[in-house]
Amino acid sequence: MPILAVQMRRFFLAAATLAVALPHVAAAQTIDNVVTRPVGGDAEPLKKGRPAEGAQPSSGLGVLDRMGAKLPDLPPEKNYHGPVDDAYGAYQRGYYLTAMQLALPRAQLGDPSAQTLVAEMQYAGLGVRRDLKSSAFWYGKAAEGGDAAAMFKYALMLMAGEIVQRDKAKADDYMKKAADSGNSSAQFNWAQILTSDHPGQEGLKLALPYYEKSAEQGIADAQYAVAELYSTLPDLPEEKRRRTREWMARAARAGFDTAQVDLAVWLVNGQNGPRDFVRGFEWMQLAANRGNVVAQNKLAHLYIYALGTKPDPVEAAKWYVLSRRAGLPDPELEDFFLGIEDDQQKAGIDRANKFRRLP
After folding, report:
1. How many angstroms separate the Cα of 205 from the Cα of each of 17, 212, 215, 230, 255?
2. Please, which pLDDT band fits residue 55 given cuts at 50, 70 and 90?
3. What is the pLDDT of residues 179-235, one digit of tens each?
């Protein structure tokens, strides 16, 4: 039985540990794939820093109107008729002492699910004193018993080599078994391992099925990886190619800011689908307000050239100042900033000083 949201979120730590040379995916927070200076004559609008041929200034937009539409109702929950696990029920309700009292005897008798629960509570110090070594012992026992969540967590411990002795071969074995058992975090991490151990397209093709399985279960990093690979890998079936933008949008809607930036660029440049300046602006604005430096830089360009919004030199100055302060220089935006009126510069700086990123 999985360990709830606490366990499922831990893949983010693993993803940071397992960053590999997957084009655009492993370097998700870099800015290398977003060019701000003019390049060749056939460059796309955001790469060139100027509007597309025939583009007209927008008359304005309503972000809430476009992005705040009511979502469809959730499907009704299905009645559960399987066995009830009282230990996990107590854990879910926050009764950690009760959960430990119920789970420990079962763990000592060799129940992998109970062993995983004991390990999780000891690892996090829930209801008991935090004990990493004892937690590792129980994760190891549960992994031996085939519990997918335990295999994933124990594999991370074996990779890190801090609580238990480092053992890459054993870690890889458990990570693959957890991935093949359906653990979405393990699927993402096993895909990362494959790309690391098999550089180039061979590793990407081996990893893609695991990224896809993880993406289907809602892991935003995996959804982003699938979108990037669908966009770049050759010889993919056309039905997959058609879903490229859909996967990027799912990662963006999940709050993955790099996906929001890339989706905005795709929409403005007409990549992997038709152009939509307004929606591109909306996604770029969202990522910028949440502190993404590349988005802040790009948003300045959109305000200058009225792509998806009305032209606004003060807002353009604000976003340029914020991105420059964060360490992203842009000679073209610097030329723009020095060319506007003094009062516009001051207003832009004042707005940048008052900026507070959204959560």
Report:
1. 21, 11, 15, 11, 26
2. low
3. 999 999 999 999 999 999 999 999 999 999 999 999 999 999 999 999 999 999 999
Contact status, residue 55 vs residue 317, Cβ threshold 8 Å: no
Residues 6+ apart with CB under 8 A from 195: 20, 21, 22, 25, 26, 203, 204, 206, 207
Q: Mapped to the 3 state alphabet, what secondary structure does 322-353 carry?
A: HHHHCCCCCHHHHHHHHHCCHHHHHHHHHHHH
R_g over Cα of the chain: 24
Q: Which of 19-28, 208-217, 296-305, 331-340 has the lowest mean pLDDT?
A: 19-28
Tokens of 163: 């609580």
Dig out the tokens for 122 from the structure.
């000891």
Handedness of CA 318, 280, 271, 257 (dihedral sign): positive
3-state helix, strand, coil in the chain (%, to 5): 60, 0, 40
Distance CA 213, CA 184 (A): 7
233 within 8 A of 201, measured Cβ to Cβ: yes
Spatial distance between the Cα atoms of 358 and 208, rounded to a whole number of angstroms: 33
Q: Average pLDDT, whole number, for the chain?
A: 84
Residues 354, 314: Cα–Cα separation, whole Å:
13
Q: Is the pLDDT of residue 304 over 50?
A: yes
Alpha-carbon distance of 230 to 242, in angstroms, equals: 9
Give the tokens for residue 39.
């390049």
Three-class secondary structure of residue 305 per DSSP: coil
In the chain, what are the domains? 90-222 (1.25.40.10)
113-132: average pLDDT: 96
Name the residue with tokens 């890459």.
168
**Closest Cα partner for 189 from 28, 22, 19, 3?**
19
H or E segment at 154?
Answer: helix 148-160
Listing DSSP states for 216-246 in one string gives HTT-HHHHHHHHHHHHH-SS--HHHHTTHHH
pLDDT in tens, 305-337: 999 999 999 999 999 999 999 999 999 999 999
pTM listed for this prediction: 0.77
Residue whose entry in the numeric block shows the structure tokens 């994933």: 152
